[in-house]
Amino acid sequence: MIKYMQNFERWLKEPKLGEKLKLELLELKSQGETAFPEIEDRFYRDLEFGTGGLRGILGAGTNRMNIHTVAKTVQGLANYVTDNYEERLKKGNNKKPSIAISYDSRINSELFAKTAAKVLMVNSIDVYLYKELMPTPALSFATRYYHCDGGIMITASHNPSKYNGVKVYNKDGCQETLEAAKIIMEKIESLDPFNDIKIDSSTVLNHGKLTYIPEEAISAYIDAVHKELIPVDCELDKLNVVYTPLNGTGNKPVRRILKKIGIKSINVVKEQENPDGYFTTCPYPNPEKEEALTLAKALFRELYDHAESDSERPDVLLATDPDSDRIGVACLYNDEIKTLTGNEVGILLFDFICNHRKLPEHPVAVRTIVSTKMIDSIAKNYGVEIITTLTGFKFIGEQIGYLEEKGESERYIFGFEESVGYLTGAYVRDKDAVNAAMLICQMVGFYKKQGITMFEKLEDLYKQYGYWKNDLIEFAFEGAKGMQIMSGIMNHFRTKYYQDFAGKKITEIVDYKKKTRRIIKGNSCNCSMVSGTRPTNLPSSDVLEFILEGGSCFALRPSGTEPKFKIYIGSKANNRKESAEILEQLSEELAIIIKDITK
Questions:
Q1: Alpha-carbon distances, residue 45 vs 61, 264, 422, 428 (angstroms)
Q2: Residue from 124, 140, 157, 552 carrying the catalytic annotation
Q3: Same fold, 49-213 and 467-598
Q4: Cβ atoms < 10 Å from Cβ of 488
């Protein structure tokens, strides 16, 4: 019998399998051979624990998110924490291990959070659990606030409603490092989801204690965010904000911080105000995407058109994703409500911080490898050191941790990734949409008082630093076959030697998987024409970047959290028209290549 069918039959016969999950599998069995592809997708592998934790489609199966795969993951984490505790005991440190837990509005998030808490407590680990759904950055804060050994966030971030996930954090409130994630993954993989999970508390003597996180800790988090406010005159009481939490965790903390800084007019999209794991009005709750902002833009337009005076018209639209670590932004531009890209917001925020905050000695900012390189030019102008990391905010959090270890955390002033994630303080180790919402409003208010919009300010920055434009094209590849296709695409670009793209010669090829940066000589990137190879000085990651003459570039990357292949494109030119043409040409050429490879 094929292995996936063996796994399927094993789950069907398992007495510990939840009744709802068993009925789901029985329904599949009743469909006969027509259900084989679905059964294969559910059981051809275990849901993989990667550098961002666990994420997958809800349902029964080893490759699905359910109480059994969650419990198995948490048991692996508990074993890792217990091992570290035993090492501490040998050194005379007998502080009992503890884990903080938070969850978002997704289907089964609260159930998974309480399942995780139960497993941890049976493993003699104390638990700090939020009483209600709270953002990812609040989980990072609680982990640090209570000096826990780690944290768990139940969320699938911005994925569609059929997904959920488990993010795992270390004692610093940062998502686990590559080395620790590998150890935890090995512990998880060694477990049977039904027979190796400690979840029966009847025989446990040293049971872990459950503490519900009180208002005191939430207020401390809000206060920490508020300390990041920049001292500029911007009359926030005159600002009008349209906001949607996209049925997620941002509703209370975002509104709370905006009120705390003096904003009186916060217009919330009613249909998306309260928790809804089905995201009924927004099937793909990703604030990067235009469709996620449809209702918010409609409210913005309605308020704008019916305002009796200019002072009553909305100034900015904000949208946070379900776990409120990402934020989308839109403003009026030539009578159109236009969305700013993650890179554009990053550029504006960074320049605003450098211009108006009192910078520390030897300031540091951090960006990911796929984020706009325009940040580097701005940093050079202000004397800010730029550190570049792999994709994922955990690597930015890791850099903040390195500074903290040296007693230099005050040097950190900004971190951002193009996927609308930002952070200005060292109080947490993950991107924070609550922090970003506050600073974006402050920035909008400041420029409003000067009589300019964010788009006008952006144009000024392009004139100063060059027209850097960015785009992201995505291709969806589902299931086991999809993973093979994405691997094939990466292999194609690693082995086929292209001379140029969009009429621009290739000057460098950076293979982050091989950790090499190749400098290209002449008109070809044939191996014989390579004039030098340097290390990337970064951990291995399956990303390939091509840098072209003039500064334009693109990077290819299979997503680690979705069945998608992503191409991050950046163009640089001396004027808007030329930059847009390069961007369009690169997009068209790359789309044709992907189509030819995958047909």
A1: 9, 51, 34, 34
A2: 157
A3: no
A4: 12
CB-based contact 154:103 (threshold 8 Å) = yes
| Mean of pLDDT values over 267-295 | 96
Report whether pLDDT(526) > 50. no
The yes-or-no verdict on residue 51 having pLDDT over 70 is no
**In CATH, which of 3.30.310.50, 3.60.150.10, 3.30.1330.10, 3.40.47.10 is domain 467-598?**
3.30.310.50
219 a catalytic residue: no
Domain ranges of the chain: 1-44, 49-213, 222-465, 467-598
DSSP per residue over 316-358, as a string? EEEEE-TTSS-EEEEEEETTEEEEEPHHHHHHHHHHHHHHHS-
**Interatomic CA distance for residues 181 and 83, integer angstroms:** 14
What one-letter code names the amino acid at 56?
Answer: G
Per-residue tokens: 499: 């001379």
Phi/psi for 468 (5° steps) reads -95, 115
Q: Which residue matches tokens 């800084």?
A: 261
Phi, psi of 243 (to 5 degrees): -140, 140
CB 427 within 8 A of CB 401: no
Q: What is the DSSP letter of 543?
A: -
CATH architecture of 222-465: 3-Layer(aba) Sandwich (3.40)
Note the Cα 419 to chain centre separation in Å.
7
pLDDT digits (tens, 9 = 90+) for 369-404: 999 999 999 999 999 999 999 999 999 999 999 999
Top pLDDT among 42 and 235 is at 42
| Residue 588 vs residues 87, 313, 471, 523, 581: alpha-carbon distances, Å | 55, 39, 12, 22, 11
Integer Cα distance of 138 and 251 in angstroms: 13
524 pLDDT above the threshold of 50 = no
Mean pLDDT of 105-109: 98
Task: Give the number of other CB atoms < 10 A from CB of residue 42.
Answer: 25
Per-residue pLDDT tens over the stretch 121-160: 999 999 999 999 999 999 999 999 999 999 999 999 999 9
The number of C-alpha atoms within 13 Å of 113 and in the hemisphere containing its C-beta is: 27
Whole-model pTM above 0.85? yes
Pair 300, 291: CB distance under 8 Å: no
pLDDT at residue number 89 = 77
Determine the average pLDDT of the residues in 86-103: 87
Taking domain 49-213, whether its CATH number is 3.40.120.10 is answered by: yes
